[in-house]
Amino acid sequence: MTVNRSINQAGPATLTIFYAPPKDPVTTAPSSTPLSPATQSKPTSSYTSFERTETISMKHKHELDILSQLMDLTKATPVAATPEEETELQQLAIEEERSAADRTRNAAHTEQRRQEKALLDQARGAVGPA
Questions:
Q1: DSSP per-residue string spanning 61-106
Q2: pTM of this prediction exceeds 0.85
């Protein structure tokens, strides 16, 4: 898959899907030619002919809406996570819980230090030189 980005933020934000006829499996090889951003208006696939193209407008849309439209257009189906991936997701969730607890504890510690410093500064200001 090739993704081209445009600098023009005011222009359309579209995702174009190029449907190509199936190639002979023996001659199918990934293209190693890098495409420059100047090829914005040209098809970015290594195919020379297309059966059809579909376009999804992405401007001001949430990523889940875009994904849903993409899956509907391409008739894609979700792939279930493997047991290894499930284990990894569980470990990531545990790490996120630990991180949240650490952030809370660090915020409390920082607040306590700030209050102690404020009290010391106030005490130093009240004593002053004789």
A1: --HHHHHHHHHHHHT--PPPPPHHHHHHHHHHHHHHHHHHHHHHHH
A2: no
